[in-house]
Write a structure and sequence with these properties.
The structure holds two protein chains of two kinds. By secondary structure, chain A is an alpha+beta fold. In chain A, about 40% of the residues lie in helices and about 20% in strands. By secondary structure, chain B is of the alpha+beta class. Classes of the chains: A alpha+beta, B alpha+beta.
């Protein structure tokens, strides 16, 4: 009997080794460890054995059964793993196929750069002040120390609004965001004329000039100005603030230089140049080989402007600066056509 | 302004490299745009990144030479063979220069002609090429005669584009000297800002260079030899309005021979951008460029003729309305009282400060002119130097489009103090170049003397503005370099403005003006960077802008692309928003008085019109277009500046899904895609709006909704009316929206409450009800919500179904309901009760039947 059990085990294991798929596996299970399998039959034939033989055969039969069950479990695992490997091999994607299109939204590049600049200025304490597009000559020029017929007006050719006869105070589209300086100063000083609060604002907005639309000039463009007014504001503060801004905008190693310039509403006035971030100052087509990029105009607020805003120039000083965010987008992305901005061609917009 | 450096050297020694000087000028406010070499050696490296161009003349190869004889070419009439000596050797040089023909066949010239001679291998501009093309002079044969060198024209040397003849140098030109050493130069192109008009002359730039480099300024020193009868008594001046004409000065020079100016003066004028005309005109231009006083020369004999036997009386006055004058460009000009005239008793002579009149212009009596009856060979000249109100000059120059160099300067302000020096200097040059005799004295009428402000500035003023301490003595020293007269009293400096500047104000303005000069001369780069020590101002933020930006962010999250368009438009463009059959009333626009183009002649009233233009532009460039813009529209008001409310416009068009490789879904964006976007926006803004069927001329009458908040309409959206769609070149139906953001923001609350999400399990259930077609889905949902109350956590419409089985004119609406209590687990019985109430209510109010019962 014991020999028979050995024979059963040996034969069953041989058969198991030949099983390759799950269907044959089940057939093997029924035939070899199922209820009517040979080893189970040994248990049912136990009654016909002698007292001495019975425990020996029983023990052996249990051993064989356990061994077959274990072998079966291992075989199941092996076959399943092989089957999985096979099916995984068949599920291979061509991952180079393009992904399914998702409708992706985006901000206009002019908004992106405007936000970035306003964000940096906000962290430096400049709060945003917005004002209107259609302005009076008084706000856009006169209060900013451009008297009627002043030659500096030629630097900003204006688009006028047909608003009837208004003498020396015609209506026009603002040529810069500076009228917001006057509006802000008047608004703040009206709150407490004897003791007006100090000011630190950023003024973003659309500005307009009488220019034909070409690759290099636009009739409409964004500008951001900054204005700081207080009792202790100096030209050194102007330099420090704008150099800080440039380092945030163009990289912490950005170098700046200040060049004396002229704006009627600031004095002293200066242009700030940043060392070309494309070539590092060596000279390239972006900086037209000068190594420097003109970034913004700035200066100490002219006493007449402070006065016009309700701030006593004997007590207050201030600085102001203005820049064109689109120009900076063009420099950063080496765009050579300003018309792309308001052209809104999807082939342009999709690149941002 | 073009500044030849050789000319600058008349007044200041330049010890720095040219580029270093240009850098100093640039950082101190005189921006050098370009450095143009005309002969001098160009720098090896461009250290400061200036735009540098031009030509250097090889000192060995290009020299001063003399032509001793001009002979004929044996095989060509138009060519000459010159016998030339270059200081070392004799050469035979072939030329085609017409200005040498007159000397042909004269044998050995009594007075040799001094010329610019280029030897073989010289690099020059090709005189025959269009524009400036470099070429190297090579040995060649022309009509059988060997040629290896040439006599140069101005174009070949890069002095000007003149190639009509060769340069004939002044008689004292030293033969054999390198031409670069004799007339080499470099020209700085300087951008003169409006406050720097005083420096639009060589002396002014020299003063700046002297101040910046610490060199002394060498003002012109010369002696004016006077002879003959004094001018006094010959001419009188009447100034009718000193505000228009604060000063008028005249001088007289007699027996002037009109001819060419010396070559050196012509060359300087050309390099400065002026065309040489004759010695007399050139002298006025030369003096203007040199010291900044524009001058005008009258033919004294013609003025005398006009005056008859009496002395000449010059009158300056505003022109009469419609008064006429023929200017020297032979145009009859019709004038207005803005224009100022120089007249005599018979009438107008010239447009003051802008352009002379034809009649009194200088006539060359040696040539047969209009006054051919006159026989004398010389001319007498009355020279005017005046000061004018810059506003009138500006308006005159602009209205007559006459932008002369004189008008350029007068329209920016020329100090009245310059007239006498201007006239004397010009008479000096006229005398030197024409052999005339200067009459003693000047006639000078100066009814409105200029006030040159005295400004008091303290060390504290400088500290307060610039943030640095500069001792008073140092401040005075800086300012004196620019000819301010300073008196230091302790820490205070009394600064007297010099009598050639019109840009220094009085009082506080004067302090700021002086501060600018101090900062420039001290050096902006020397002022240390500091951070503001002033306390931060009160914080008020900009809520309105924050909301606008939030709208942008939400729409981008919803997959839309922001666009920004021109805020200028045309009524025609905006009228495309209406069907042609129903054009609507004419709208009042904010109109531009001087638009750049007809299609940009008004400020837009509709943001949607702008966005639809973008959709039209991109119609064939993308399969899916989903765009929005946030920006103002402009609504005119009778007595005030226009309103500028911000709007939001959205437009969708094209396919819902971009074309892809594994699906053929070609569904087009429609009304409900846009409604989804709007619902998303309203949900994110926490605005509980309702959607009402609406009639709007832009939209399809059956596919248009108003978005309503309380009793306010925020805007409209829908599919474009087919007749509006037809006004555009779109590629697919367009669904669009237009909202007034001011109304939307006014209805917004800043705070909203978060509802608890609930911890007890929800009961999920679907119900389908059949209602009449006319019952809006929103009504059904509202009834379900009202009835379900707090226990109904969510309602979602998931199916709309129509069939004959459920009946014509009916529809089935299927809703997924979620019941949930915050207090405990709902039992089936509770859920069934709510469901029962909902079904009863729907039946009672709108006759809805459960689909399973129908």
């Amino acid at each position: 009997m014991l020999e028979k059990l050995d024979e059963i085990e040996k034969k069953a294991l041989e058969l198991l080794a030949m099983v390759e798929d799950e269907a044959s596996l089940e057939a093997w299970r029924i035939a070899n460890i199922g209820r009517s399998s040979a080893v189970m039959n040994v248990f049912s034939q136990m009654g016909g054995l002698s007292k001495e033989e019975r425990p020996l055969v029983g023990q052996k039969a249990n051993q064989v059964k356990t061994a077959l069950e274990k072998a079966f479990a291992e075989r199941v695992e092996t076959i399943k793993t092989a089957a999985l490997a096979k099916s995984l091999a068949n599920e291979k994607l061509d991952i180079t196929l393009p992904g399914r299109p998702v409708r992706r939204g985006g901000l206009h590049p002019a908004t992106i750069v405007l936000r970035r600049m306003l964000g940096i200025l906000a962290e430096m304490g400049f709060q945003v002040y917005t004002s209107r597009d259609v302005e009076t000559d008084e706000m856009n020029f006169q209060a900013l120390n451009f008297p009627p017929h002043h030659p500096a007006r030629e630097m900003q050719d204006s688009l006028y609004i047909d608003a009837g006869e208004r003498g020396d105070n015609p209506v026009l589209l603002r040529t810069h965001t500076s009228p917001g300086q006057i509006r802000a100063m008047r608004e703040f000083s009206a709150e407490n004329p004897e003791n007006p609060p100090s000011i630190r604002i950023a003024l973003p907005g659309m500005c307009y000039r009488y220019e034909q639309i070409t690759a290099r000039s636009e009739v409409q463009f964004y500008q951001i100005e900054g204005l700081a007014v207080g009792e202790n504001i100096t030209y050194g503060d102007l330099k420090g603030t704008l150099a800080d801004f440039a380092r945030r905008m163009f990289g912490l190693n950005a170098k700046v230089r200040f060049r004396a310039s002229y704006f009627p509403f600031t004095e002293p006035s200066a242009e700030m140049d940043v060392e070309c971030f494309v070539c590092g100052g060596k000279g390239c087509p972006v900086c037209k080989n000068s190594g420097w990029l003109e970034i913004l105009g700035s200066g100490m607020v002219h006493p007449v402007v402070l006065q016009n805003g309700g701030y006593d120039p004997r007590r207050f000083t201030g600085f102001a600066f203005g820049m064109g965010p689109q120009r900076q987008t063009m420099l950063l992305h080496r765009m050579n056509d300003i018309r792309y901005f308001w052209g809104n061609d999807v082939r342009f917009l999709n690149q941002f | 302004m073009r500044v030849p450096v050789s000319w600058l050297q008349d007044f200041v020694d330049i010890k720095l490299p040219i580029e270093e000087m240009a850098r100093l000028l640039t950082v101190s406010g005189l921006e050098v745009d370009e450095i143009h070499y005309v002969g001098w050696e160009m720098p090896k490296e461009n250290k400061y990144g200036f735009k540098i161009n031009g030509l250097s003349w090889d000192k060995e190869k290009i020299v001063v030479a003399e032509i001793r004889e001009v002979g004929a070419h044996p095989n060509a009439d138009r060519l000459t063979l010159c016998d030339l000596y270059d200081g070392k050797q004799q050469h035979t040089v072939l030329t085609g220069a017409p200005n040498l023909y007159p000397f042909k066949g004269q044998g050995k010239l009594a007075k040799p002609l001094k010329v610019a001679y280029a030897k073989e291998g010289s690099t020059l501009y090709d005189g025959h090429a269009d524009g400036l093309v470099l070429a190297t002079l090579k040995r060649t044969k022309i009509r059988g005669i060997e040629s290896y060198s040439m006599v140069c024209s101005e174009k070949e040397l890069g002095i000007s584009l003149e190639h009509e003849g060769v340069i004939i140098l002044d008689d004292d030109a030293p033969v054999g000297m390198a031409l670069a050493d004799y007339i080499g130069d470099v020209v700085l192109e300087i951008n003169i800002l409006p406050n720097n008009a005083r420096n639009a002359n060589i002396l002014g730039i020299a003063r700046e260079v002297a101040a910046l480099t610490g060199q002394p300024l060498k003002k012109p020193v010369y002696e004016l030899k006077e002879s003959g009868e004094p001018i006094k008594g010959k001419v009188s001046i009447e100034i009718r309005d000193p505000q228009l004409n604060p000063r008028f000065t005249v001088g007289l020079i007699r027996d002037v021979e009109i001819k060419e100016s010396p070559y050196w003066a012509q060359r300087r004028l050309r390099l400065a951008g002026m065309r040489p005309i004759s010695n007399i005109v050139d002298a006025t231009n030369y003096t203007m460029i040199e010291i900044g006083e524009p001058l005008h020369a009258f033919d004294f004999d013609i003025l005398q003729q006009r005056a008859g036997c009496k002395p000449i009386k010059i009158i300056t006055r505003a022109a009469g309305q419609g008064e006429k004058l023929v200017t020297l460009d032979n145009n009859e000009r019709t004038l207005s009282p803005t224009n100022v005239l120089v007249c005599d008793e018979k009438g107008a002579l010239s447009m003051a400060g802008v352009m002379g009149g034809l009649e009194s212009e200088i006539h060359d009596n040696t040539k047969a002119g209009p006054e051919s009856s006159r026989t004398q060979s010389t001319t007498n000249i009355l020279l005017e130097g005046a000061a004018w109100n810059f506003i009138n000059i500006r308006r005159t120059a602009n209205s007559h489009n006459l932008h002369s160099e004189a008008a350029y300067r007068f329209s920016r302000g020329v100090h009245p103090g310059l007239t006498v020096e201007g006239i004397r200097r010009c008479l000096y040059w006229m005398q030197a170049w024409s052999g005339g005799k200067v009459a003693p004295g000047l006639v000078d009428e100066y009814p409105l003397p200029a006030i040159d402000p005295l400004v008091e500035i303290t060390e504290q003023d400088i500290k307060r503005s610039l943030g640095i301490n500069i001792p008073a003595n140092e401040v005075a020293e800086l300012l004196e370099r620019l000819e301010f007269k300073c008196t230091v009293r302790g820490k205070t400096i009394l600064v007297q403005t010099p009598p050639f500047r019109t840009d220094i104000g009085e009082g506080l303005v004067g302090v700021a003006d002086i501060m600018e000069e101090v900062s420039r001369l001290y050096g902006l780069d020397r002022i240390p960077e500091t951070r503001m020590a002033d306390p931060l101002p009160p914080q008020s933020g900009n809520l309105s802008l924050e909301r606008e930006e939030r709208v942008r962010d939400i729409l981008v999250e919803l997959g839309l692309q922001e666009v920004i368009t021109y805020r200028m438009s045309s009524p025609e463009n905006e009228s495309r928003l209406l069907p042609k059959s129903a054009p609507g009333p004419e709208l009042d626009y904010v109109r531009l008085a001087n638009p750049i183009a007809p299609e940009k002649r008004v400020m837009r009233r509709s943001l949607l019109a702008s966005v639809l233009n973008v959709i039209e532009h991109n119609a064939r460039l993308a399969e899916t277009l989903a765009m929005f813009e946030v920006g103002p529209v402009f609504l005119p008001q009778a007595a005030d500046l226009p309103l500028e409310p911000r709007h939001l416009a959205i437009a969708l068009s094209g396919r819902c899904y971009g074309q892809t490789w594994d699906t053929k879904l070609t569904q087009k964006l429609d009304f409900f895609d846009l409604k989804g976007v709007i619902e998303g926006l309203m949900a994110a803004l926490h605005l509980a709006v309702s959607y009402e069927p609406a009639d709007h001329p832009t939209f399809h009458p059956g596919k248009c909704a108003a978005v309503v908040l309380g009793n306010k309409t925020l805007g409209y959206f829908g599919e474009l009316h087919p007749q509006v769609q037809a006004n555009y070149d779109f590629n697919a139906p367009v669904i669009a929206a237009d909202f007034d953001l001011e109304i939307m923001f006014a209805g917004m609350k800043d705070a909203f409450d978060v509802k608890p999400v609930g911890e007890f399990p929800p009961v999920l259930e679907d119900i389908a009800v059949i209602v009449d077609e006319s019952v809006p889905a929103e009504r059904v949902e509202a009834l379900i919500r009202q009835t379900g109350g707090k226990l109904l956590a969510s309602v979602k419409l998931f199916d709309v179904f129509r069939s004959e089985q459920i009946g014509v004119g009916k529809k089935s609406l299927a809703y997924a309901l979620v019941y949930q209590s915050l207090e405990g687990t709902l039992t089936d019985k509770e859920a069934t009760q709510i469901r029962g109430r909902i079904i009863q209510r729907l039946d009672r109010e709108i006759g809805a039947k459960l689909r399973s019962q129908a």
